[in-house]
Amino acid sequence: MTKYETMFILAPEQDDETYAAQVEKFKGIIEAEGGEVTNINRMGRRKLAYEVRKKFREGYYVLFNYLGSPDVTDELERNFRISDEVIRYLIVKEGE
Predict the structure, then answer these.
(1) Which domain holds residue 61?
(2) pLDDT of residue 50
(3) How confident is the model at residue 52 (pLDDT cuts 50, 70, 90)?
(4) Average confidence (pLDDT) over 19-48
(5) Which of 38, 41, 54, 59 has the least C-beta neighbours within 10 A?
(6) 53: burial class by Cβ within 10 Å (0-12, 13-18, 19+)?
(7) SS3 sequence, the chain?
(8) Bridge partners of 59?
């Protein structure tokens, strides 16, 4: 299995329970596809470097480290794209 690091930013107008539910949802997607989450870092609400989608100036940052196949990242990316709560994401394959 390959090591991956994924950072995503959630829309800022949600409450803590919604953030926790979103994090669990994406963790569940990784595990359902056969991946193994090794670390979750909820970095919290932070200011964005630039305005996103013409309205967001801050967001809730979350960092996942996990092991998985490329199928895991494909499914995760598909869910990020269709989710209205995710305003930005980045998936990086960690060095070997």
Answers:
(1) 2-93
(2) 87
(3) confident
(4) 94
(5) 54
(6) exposed
(7) CEEEEEEEEECCCCCHHHHHHHHHHHHHHHHHCCCEEEEEEEEEEEEEEEEECCCEEEEEEEEEEEEECHHHHHHHHHHHHHCCCEEEEEEEECCC
(8) 46
CA distance 53 to 71: 28
The tokens for 29 are 């997607």
Split into its structural domains, the chain has a count of: 1
Biggest alpha carbon–alpha carbon distance for the chain? 38
Q: Are 94 and 66 in contact (CB under 8 A)?
A: no
Residue 9 near residue 60 (C-beta atoms within 8 A): yes
Taking the C-alpha atoms of 43, 49, 52 and 56 in order, what is their torsion angle to the nearest 10 degrees?
60
What CATH number is attached to the domain comprising 38? 3.30.70.60
Neighbours of 5 (CB within 10 A): 16
Residue type, 86: V
Tokens standing for residue 9? 């930013």
